[in-house]
User: Fold this.
Amino acid sequence: MASSDRVFKLAQLAQAAGVSPRTVRYYIQRGLLPAPGFRGADTTYGEEHLRRLGVIRRLQDLFWPLDAIGRALEAPDPRWLDEVLAGGEPGPPISVDVPDKPVVPDNGEAWWRLVLAPGVELHVTADARERHASWLARVVALGPP
Assistant:
């Protein structure tokens, strides 16, 4: 059986992820993890559960709130999940209103226009965007209230 085909019982999954079974159930209730494969004594969890638990733990270590983590996990890019699991600096999980190119007005100073919510914009110089990428990623990940 390939490692991607592994299945876990609740206690095995919790141990592999370094959390308690109660935490796994709580994350399922909050929508951070998908519901398990079966119900009752034959309930099984897969590699995706373990992967998401790793992402949740990593983002919590970076002080992301659970609501922001939940939004990030709603429709994640698999490459983003891999980057987070590998210990990389997690940028925004999806390019929600984050432009590919900066705006360059007549004065020549490039800046980025980040739309955080309808009517709420953050204007960041290209220099500050690089220096504060981690902080900006957390702000963007919080999303609208």
In short: The longest strand covers residues 111-117.
